[in-house]
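Supplementary Methods, section 5.1.

A reviewer requested that the exact input to the structure prediction be made available. We therefore reproduce it here, unchanged from the version used in the analyses.
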Amino acid sequence: MILRLLAFALAVYLVYRLIRWGMDILASPKRPSPGPPPDQPIVPCKACGTFIPRDEADVDDRGHIFCSTECRADEPH
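The structure derived from this sequence is encoded token-by-token as follows.
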């Protein structure tokens, strides 16, 4: 009888822990995606002003920085 009671208590405890674990996962705030590394400079696009990491920028032959090939194409020469 005591063994059944202990087994029942253990089962109830495990179900409780499983429910708590699931609720903690659902309630945890979503982490924002990390930005560029701190040593990487952020530069503005010449056409639209959007700030982008220097490594991801599209640079023309005159050294002008663009966020994309679309902005580069839209820029008057």
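Residues 1-30 form one domain. These observations are discussed further in the main text.
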